[in-house]
Amino acid sequence: MSADRPGLHTVTQGRGLLFGGDYNPEQWPEHVWEEDAALMRKAGVNLVTVGVFSWGRLEPSPGERDFAWLDRVLELMHGAGVAVDLATPTASPPPWLGHHFPRTLPVNEAGNTLWYGARNQWCPSSRDYHARSTAIVTDLVERYADHPAVAMWHVGNEFGQVCYCDEAAEEFRFWLRQRYTGLDALNEAWGTTFWSQHYSEWEQVLPPRLAPYIVNPSQKLDWARFCSDELLAHYKAERDLIRELSPGKPITTNYMGFFKPVDYWSWAPEQDIISNDWYPDLSDPRFPARAALTHDLMRSLAGGKPWMLMEQSTGAVNWRPHNLPKPAGQLRLESLQAVARGADGLCYFQWRQSAFGAERFHSAMVPLAGPDTEAHAEVRAHGLELHELHDIAGTEVRADVALLHDWHSWWAAEERARPSDRLSVVEQLTDYYHPLWRRGVTVDLAHPSSELSPYRLVIAPQLFVISDADAVKLTEWVRAGGVLVVGPFSGISDPRGHLHTGRFPAPLRDVLGASGEAWRPVDGEVECAWRDETGFKQGFFTARDWTETIRAEGAEVVATFPGDGPAVTRHAFGAGVAWYVATLPDAAALAELTARFMADAQVSGVLAELPEGVEAVRRGDLLWVLNHGDGTVSVPFEGDAVDVLTGSPLRDGVDLAPRGVAILRQHAGPPATR
Ligand code: GAL
Do the bridges between strand 47-50 and strand 622-627 make them parallel or antiparallel, or are there none, so unpaired? Predict the structure, then answer.
């Protein structure tokens, strides 16, 4: 995102927070469109995403064009005062593409073709796909570039395709040649002396296709990089076309949270608007914290600026094995949670529930039962309420704490052959995030090579790959006063996937004042002991699955494994502190440790005390308090405030109903005397 480009502000200007959803009128006869427009107005809808899956309607047979229906949709939306986020239809090619141009069809790692009949059947490296998608996008954008209904552009949908075909292999080799110039360098980087994998001609180099046994991890790591880059190249090709033909309108594509195949850090600077699709699993007890973590990732990808929740559901999805509906109040709570964490757009999949096709059982803003339903009444009430909050658009959220996350490290860490598959990058991020969230501490996500000066506490729950330059930077940041926390299996590999030699984590050994020599996964739990400054045991906690043989080299030992080897260390280093946690502590122990990290970093939550299940975050000058629990709670705070939603004055606290939200404008100065 660049400052001189149009952005989300271009769309929110004059509209406030954006509210709406995916609108697929092509699934309905035209008289329903009229009803849609009228209902949208009543629900305060001000933005709809149109055309995501309309390639087959726009180009019913190769080269044919039918834009007339879309003309009418855009006119209708414009007349209703609903802005359009117009999508390029390239996520779902019509059957004719695969039929006439079979090389557009993706091939999986076993060499099987994935056919049309669903969606997403395209190979990112296919020249035929590129030519045909560019043709339809060009005509679409030329036609609607200046249409007054079109407020922004939406490229494709949820980029994530991977293809192992011969054309992809060619492109992979091309990408590798740029990276390594010569085969010698490639052989060196991939460590091909292992198992006799030496390549003597470029033509021998392939994607990591299905093989008899474990495939070279460095080859797979480069393949993951290539796949993300290849998709990005496709996104950029469409984007550049739109920029040329429709300058002045911002462009986005929708992310999928912590979606492993795509490195969103490298994508984010290429987008004018960061947008995300978020479908929580309500059967997961930690889903509210996961939502917060994912929203924080989006805000961080947007460089702290507002972002957009492009898709969420009003109720149940239909693609999990067992799909829980949302209780009353949940859609509002989830949407306001995203606003609290920096979202300026709150959109849903989809406006009207489909009567046919693969998503017949997916909830929508207008259910099949029609507008006279509890579900639609909630949607309408929420849309109108968001309207009242228009001033919030554009305000920002600040964080003192960062969690380090790097897609390349994630790819490298979760290789098939490793000490334990019970270590999970995203679960460890969530483990460390959770206690901070519980205490109302706002967290950003940061790439390890990003600027860390805004933060006082930086946590690397599992940073398997760390470059020497980043390790030096982290070390100097601690020396200058930062507080760093490093979790297990961090600092183990270089960016090629070669493990560092010597005691681990080699590049962070000095700053941690501790080092290890062996990973020792365990089955189930181990009992660890807290130690005081004199080394006495001060209680116990459980940890699971993972232990290490480490020794303190200047650090104090905060906790030990059975057998008295260090499990957690703390090292005063320069003006800062570096912690090393060599296991997966249980939630209570991580909460205890978090309190100590926060004390070292002098970081505190936005409220002194938060009842279980309550989230608190400050956006702009407003304090948002959200009750994710099923019971009424009282949330204490000091002094006077006004609840922006109700206009009610409050003193010393607020009561929140189940799934209730308060947005507080606190009054400066000491509390008034009673
Ligand atoms: C998203 C997708 C939408 C719809 C939705 C259903 O992944 O972008 O088109 O399929 O899921 O939950």
Answer: unpaired
Band of residue 637 on the pLDDT scale cut at 50, 70, 90 = very high
Q: How far is the CA of 581 from the centre of ligand 1 (A)?
A: 38
- Of the residues 59, 238, 311, 615, only one is catalytic, namely 311
Q: Which atom of ligand 1 is nearest to the CA of 52?
A: 9
Residue that finishes a domain, picked among 576, 601, 626: 601
Candidates 61, 41, 37, 39; CA nearest to 50 is: 37
Q: Do 507 and 651 lie in a common domain? A: no
How do residues 526-580 score in pLDDT, each as one tens digit?
Answer: 999 999 989 999 999 999 999 999 999 999 999 999 999 999 999 999 999 999 9
Phi, psi dihedral angles at 364 (to 5 degrees) = -155, 175
Please confirm, yes or no, whether 188 is among the known catalytic residues.
Answer: no
Question: Which protein residue's CA is at the shortest distance from atom 11 of ligand 1?
Answer: 349
* pLDDT over threshold 50, residue 380: yes
667 pLDDT band, cuts 50/70/90, is: confident
Boundary residue ending a domain (549, 574, 601): 601
- Tell me what the mean pLDDT of segment 25-33 comes to: 98
Residue 1 has pLDDT above 80, yes or no: no
Residue 312 Cβ < 6 Å to ligand 1 = no
What is the span of the domain harbouring residue 641? 614-666
| Contact in structure between 249 and 271 (CB atoms under 8 Å) | no
Average pLDDT over residues 358-385: 98
Residue 111 lies in a domain: no
Assess contact for 109 and 209: CB atoms under 8 A: yes
pTM of full prediction above 0.90 = yes
Q: Model confidence over 453-478: pLDDT tens digits?
A: 999 999 999 999 999 999 999 999 99
* Cα torsion angle, 34, 39, 42, 43, sign: negative
Chain-centroid distance, C-alpha 377: 30
Give the count of domains, the chain: 3
| Distance of CA 402 from the midpoint of ligand 1 (Å) | 30
For residue 269, tell me if it sits in a domain: yes
Beta bridge partners of 655: 634
Order the strands of the 614-619 sheet from edge to edge.
614-619, 622-627, 661-666, 633-643, 649-656
Quote the ligand 1 centre to 253 CA distance (angstroms): 13
Query: Where does the pLDDT of residue 290 fall: very low under 50, low under 70, confident under 90, or very high at 90 and above?
Result: very high
Is the CB of residue 22 less than 8 Å from the CB of residue 351? yes
Probe target for ligand 1 pocket from 349, 351, 354, 360, with the most ligand atoms within 8 Å of CB: 349
561 with 432, same domain? yes
The confidence score (pLDDT) of residue 2 equals 67
Mind giving me the DSSP string for 100-137? H-GGGS-B-TTSPBPPSSSS----TT-HHHHHHHHHHH
Residue 272, ligand 1, Cβ within 6 A: no
% of the chain surpassing 70 pLDDT: 99
Same domain, 455 and 537: yes
